[in-house]
TrEMBL record:
Keywords: Signal. Gene3D superfamilies: Trypsin-like serine proteases. The keyword Signal applies. Residues 1-19 form the signal peptide. InterPro entries: Peptidase_S1_PA, Peptidase_S1_PA_chymotrypsin. This is V8-like Glu-specific endopeptidase.
Length: 347
């Protein structure tokens, strides 16, 4: 197998690591985010000055809204259904929180040089170090490289990092998305280092593995198109009744049933859609969870928002849409789930 590794540095990434797939497996492209030597600098960028860059980050607005979504399309199972079991978060048995601890925001610096965020989700993996989000919330479609200073903050609220901040090491995307702008493959899995917290003096402390701290959603693929799903995200658009705007500071939830969809403006024909009040900026990366259980706060990630559309002018009837999770996605997950990371701090 021949691989080519690009040069990586904080804020300057020039190419990805393209891994030749095994027979029958999808093409997987790996983009370095931060090395062990530079990860502490990335953490300091976000946690310094009392978390000013976290507070000042704005919702990512690249490819957020499209005009038309059409029913139907070619998406659907390509093999037998499959699942990865979820990892319960600490204290899940108490059932004292209705929203998943595994949800949070991914922060990064965009092509405009400013800090932005999308929604992300901790997903169960052997090393408990995996985050899922939209592909273009990890890969910069404007500069054709990985997004800079990428981190995950579970339970993020008003710029805080209550469960620690997790610096991304590398992002796994589908070759067809990064090479051919195929939005039917607009998803990414990111390995993160152990979390860190910062003292008032700016000293970093290792807070352990992501999954150990917040648990991890399961993963499901090749599921029926007509599935009931719970959607969790940080939308920053208006509420469905227009009484107040979503602020993007708290995790919101909605529920719907998925249908097949296609979006000609993206050249995407294998999507799924769900009626959702999550509109506009901040919705990107929102998790769609199959069989979500409120008492344990876990379910199975079965889709994630890559864009939204107002189909009839009524905010209550907006649609969010996602790539259909088939066997190709499970191949990208398998490649990412086998990667160990560890701490960014000296032993």
């Amino acid at each position: 197998m021949k691989t080519t590794l690009g040069v990586s540095a904080v804020g300057s990434l020039v190419s990805g690591l393209v891994a030749a797939p095994a027979a029958g497996a999808p093409s997987t492209e790996i983009y370095p985010l931060a090395s062990a030597a530079t990860a502490a600098e990335v953490a300091a960028f976000w946690l310094g000055d009392g978390g000013a860059n976290l507070t000042n980050a704005t919702p990512y607005d690249v490819q957020t809204v499209v005009e038309k979504v059409f029913p139907g399309g070619g998406g659907g199972p390509d093999a037998k259904p499959g699942m990865v079991e979820p990892l319960l978060p600490p204290g899940s048995a108490t059932g004292n929180d209705k929203v998943p601890a595994a949800s949070g925001k991914v922060f990064f610096v965009g092509a405009d040089g400013r800090p932005h965020w999308c929604t992300g989700t901790s997903v169960q993996s052997p090393y408990r170090n995996l985050v899922a989000t939209a592909g273009h919330c990890a890969y910069d479609t404007q500069r054709l490289t990985a997004l800079d200073k990428w981190v995950f903050v579970p339970g993020s609220s008003a710029g805080t990092a209550p469960a620690g901040l997790y610096v991304g090491k590398q992002a796994f995307t589908h070759y067809d998305f990064t090479m051919y702008d195929d939005y039917d493959r607009d998803y990414s899995f990111i390995n993160v280092y152990n979390g860190v917290t910062a003292s008032p003096a700016g000293e970093l402390t290792d807070s352990g593995r992501l999954g150990d701290n917040v648990g991890g959603q399961g993963l499901a693929w090749n599921q029926p198109l007509d599935s009931s799903t719970d959607v969790f995200g940080y939308p920053a658009g208006p509420n469905p009744d227009g009484t107040r705007p979503y602020t993007g500071e708290t995790l919101e939830t909605s529920k719907g049933r998925t249908t097949a969809a296609k979006v000609p403006s993206l050249g995407a024909e294998e999507l799924v859609a769900v009626d959702s009040p999550f509109t506009g900026e901040g919705s990107l990366g929102s998790s769609w969870l199959l069989r979500y259980d409120k008492s344990s706060r876990v379910g199975y990630l079965n889709a994630l928002t890559i864009s939204v559309a107002d189909t009839d002018g009524d905010l209550r009837h907006d649609k969010s849409f996602s790539p259909y999770f088939d066997g190709e996605l499970s191949g990208i997950y398998d490649a990412a789930a086998t990667q160990w990371t560890g701490s960014i701090l000296p032993a």
